[in-house]
Design brief:
Oligomer: single chain
Largest sheet: 3 strands, antiparallel
Strand order of the largest sheet: 2-1-3
């Protein structure tokens, strides 16, 4: 199993199963991104984004039901040429333990298996997504309360320090706001906040265990849902892929034959049914194209975003040119550590910001206070433009 790349046998590889499992998430990201872009010009599409979980679950419900009915596979599995088969194990009377590969028969899915497959593919992920959003909201609320304090405590303190009339008014307001529904919602949020991490860790751990066992060829079930339903995912044969279109047309023709009523009503129902099937086919094709376009755009914009967000390192600007020494100003000594005013080693070196030359603090303070200019460049200056230098620290 570890060295199987594909095309050998009916057992799908781990990478095929993982790709089929990740396809709905990529599809949802593609749809969310596309609707978000269109919502910039069509504001009413923001309502779709507000109900993102319900919209996507309804879409996947239609796709998964149609795919399981026509191909005995989920929407993602059908794109990778995979099929679901019911596992039937026959145990011989002589040996209660069946040998590996003996007594295992694969057959088509039954009606209850298709229904439960839709539950595991659509309903359970929907509830998990809603629990995840409730958990995140409760977590943000508790984090905000820990940082900024609890608003209820502030209200109680305000009531304590206020007068009797104010306490009565605030008490009536609190009684109006604290309804049974709000209390029940808060209690549910607390239960979800305490239980969801354990449920999430258990589901992820079980999923990882099944995937590891499947990778090591220790089980034929890729997930707990497939194991609970008794379903193996197999690679479709060439004949099955060729018969898929004929099977779909046969199912649709049988549904048209079941139409009841007058001829004009049958014609109208048949036309509506044909339009629905055509729209469904176009939707499947469009969703497949959306996934690939989203992946390409994700790769393209991710590289562009990395380039834009990467810090641009520019070379340091060149230093400004040295100020010109005035002809009537004090000449600069050859030794840069000598103060031009006292011709001694600088003590408490300070700079005149208007020119940049360094002097003793006492010398330059006295000179600027008396002449209001730089002694070297004769540029106007005041004592507020003298800054001490701490280069010797």
């Amino acid at each position: 199993m570890l060295f199987q790349v594909g095309g050998q046998g009916t057992r799908p590889t781990f990478f095929e199963m993982a790709a089929a499992q990740q396809l709905p998430a990529s599809l949802r990201a593609a749809l969310t991104y596309s609707i978000g872009v269109m919502a910039l010009r069509r504001p009413f599409l923001h309502k779709v984004l507000d109900c993102e979980d319900e919209f996507f679950s309804l879409l996947m419900l239609v796709l998964e039901t149609h795919s399981l009915r026509t191909t005995d596979a989920s929407f993602a599995e059908s794109l990778y040429g995979l099929r679901r088969r019911a596992v039937k194990i026959r145990v011989k009377k002589e040996d209660a333990r069946p040998k590996s590969g003996d007594g295992v028969q694969l057959s088509g899915l039954e009606k209850h298996q298709r229904t439960l497959s839709v539950v595991f593919l659509v309903v359970l992920p929907y509830f998990k997504s809603k629990l995840h959003s409730i958990y995140n909201k409760e977590r943000e609320a508790r984090l905000q309360a820990s940082l900024w304090g609890n608003g209820d405590e502030t209200v109680e303190e305000a009531e304590y320090f206020s007068g009797g009339d104010a306490s009565l008014v605030s008490g009536e307001t609190l009684d109006a706001e604290a309804t049974i529904r709000a209390r029940l919602t808060k209690k549910i949020q607390k239960i979800v906040f305490s239980c969801y991490p354990w449920l999430h860790a258990s589901s992820e751990g079980m999923s990882f265990a099944y995937q590891l066992l499947y990778l090591l060829d220790a089980t034929g079930f890729y997930s707990f849902g497939l194991h609970a339903l008794g379903i193996h995912v197999c690679r479709a044969t060439g004949q099955e892929l060729m018969d898929t279109s004929s099977r779909i047309s046969k199912i649709r023709s049988n549904e048209r034959d079941r139409l009841r009523g007058p001829p004009w009503l049958k014609t109208l129902q048949g036309a509506l049914l044909s339009c629905a099937y055509t729209m469904l086919d176009y939707a499947q094709t469009g969703l497949i194209a959306a996934v690939f376009i989203f992946k390409m755009m994700e790769w393209w914009y991710q590289s562009a975003e990395e380039r834009m967000s990467a810090p641009t390192v520019y070379p340091p600007p060149p230093p400004p040119p040295a100020p010109k020494v005035a002809k009537e100003g004090i000449p600069l000594p050859p030794d840069r550590t000598i103060c031009p005013l006292c011709s001694q080693m600088r003590a408490n070196p300070s700079v005149v910001t208007i020119s940049g030359f360094v002097f003793c603090y006492a010398c330059i303070f006295k000179y600027v206070s008396q002449y209001n200019r730089c002694p070297v460049t004769l540029m106007p200056a005041n004592v507020d433009q003298i800054r001490r230098l701490f280069h010797d620290m």
